[in-house]
Amino acid sequence: MDIQELGFKAGDVIEVIDATNKEWWWGRIMDSEGWFPASFVRLRVNQDEPMEQFSDHLEESQCGNEDQAGLGLLLGPGIPCKEQMRANVINEIMSTERDYIKHLKDIWEGYIKQCHKRTDMFTEEQLRTIFGNIEDIYKFQRKFLKDLEKKFNNEQPHLSEIGCCFLEHQTDFQIYSEYCNNHPNACIQLSKLMKVNKYVFFFEACRLLQKMIDISLDGFLLTPVQKICKYPLQLAELLKYTNPQHRDYKDVEAALNAMKNVARLINERKRRLENIDKIAHWQSSIEDWEGEDVLVRSSELIFSGEMTKLSQPQTKSQQRMFFLFDHQMVYCKKDLLRRDILYYKGRVDMDLMEVIDLEDGKEKDFNITVKNALKLRARSGDEVHLLCTKKPEQKQRWIQAFTDERKQVHHDRETGFSLTEVQKKQAMLNAFKSHPAGKPKAVTRPYCDFLLRQKHPSLPTALPQQQVFMLAEPKRKTTFWHNIGRLTPFKK
After folding, report:
1. Which of 313, 310, 312 is nearest to 369 (CA)?
2. Are 223 and 100 in contact (CB under 8 A)?
3. Cβ(293)–Cβ(279) under 8 Å?
4. Is residue 212 within 8 Å of residue 106, measured between CB atoms?
5. 124: which of 21, 292, 336, 338 is 20 to 30 A away, CA to CA?
6. Is the dihedral of CA 112, 118, 119, 120 positive or negative?
7. Quick check: 471 pLDDT over 60?
8. Residue 235 predicted with pLDDT over 80
9. Average pLDDT, the chain
10. How far are the Cα atoms of 179, 215, 221, 439 from residue 218, in angstroms, in the given order?
11. What count of Cα atoms within 13 Å lies in the side-chain half-sphere of residue 248?
12. In whole angstroms, what is the distance from residue 483 CA to residue 16 CA?
């Protein structure tokens, strides 16, 4: 953070000292002063009295059974009526939206366009990492603002009905998920470039040409992350000062829940993306892996555990470690000596399977007696797997896990969640870097086989030939009879 920027967190009260600039204000928190983005905060609609005290007055007024016209009167000196307070919130929403569009336009015209012109300084991949999908956000926000303007009542703002705008675009707000997930990578890429003077001078020139305030680029790129988190706060404030009889009340209430869900979805996707690195590292630790990577189809580990497996046509029982992901289940074998080493043995396509809870007793397909068992059977085909656990509660946990896996797949389809090819490749690349070539992941064979597979050490070519022979010749142990033989002067 720049030394002139004012650091703050949610819930802080900032005293505004200079608000001449629409985008960046100068404020004070305790003994600290500095610039802070105006779009990140919201003005208290009643500056003369604490909100809690006004709410008490309002509740007393409503308990007194005053008519609707009475609510239009002032409740006391310097205290605005509820309609005026709703108008203030509406005006704040409209004002911050217009400022936000101006902010996105400055990033687009001031930075992105200029960067695209300098192919000698930036690659397309670098620009995608730094700016993410901010262009898509800019296009969407312009459309969203137009819809807000149509519902905004300029003469009587408290009569505006803007709740429906948030409901109509609730799925469109999900594009912020990609930007928020990419933002940490953008900061890393940007910090690398800022270590080179020519990039520092270039970005500063872009800012000056666009006549933007003296804040670094990473500060501007943080705005969309803060903006999507601000919508639930604004809608909560709007709902607080909207009468239940207002035509916009139900839409505002639904819009608040919708935007909370959007924020929750963004957080969930961020968690899922953090998990793919763990999945990639897990796969890189598995020996004898075959087939496509787990991340080609899956992005979430649902459950894992040990079970006994029987599959047709062979009915030999096998103890295996199972890992249930969305869309597939991988099973591995533990090493005989090193139980922490796993060997890949196969996988099951869960999209093609149905899970059957078996009762203890005779199983018809395998013609054996089973206990704590369940069966995976292909909906079309002859593939059948019989799985047994040691305890009944473990079986129930697996049945619940299979149910959760189907729910996860259905939820991802509804929300449109999927990993990009870039995210998959990057995760696998990071995993392979942690296991560089030539460095064994672990001792994965019996000790004798491990020794046979070792390569002989290579010697420098500059080493004298005599020394090479000495190194190659194994050192013999000196025995008693060997020492006696060396005593030649005493021989007869």
Report:
1. 310
2. yes
3. no
4. yes
5. 292
6. negative
7. no
8. yes
9. 81
10. 13, 8, 5, 38
11. 26
12. 96
pTM over 0.85: no
Query: Is the pLDDT assigned to residue 61 strictly greater than 90?
Result: no
pLDDT of residue 327: 95
Look at residue 441 and tell me whether its pLDDT is greater than 70.
Answer: no
Q: Can you give the pLDDT at residue 43?
A: 67
In the predicted structure, residue 186 carries a pLDDT above the cut 60: yes
Burial of 281 (0-12, 13-18, 19+ CB in 10 A): middle
**The Cα angle at residue 380 between residues 376 and 383, in degrees rounded to 5:** 45
And the tokens for 102?
Answer: 């101006």
The two three-digit tokens of residue 464, written as one number: 């004298």
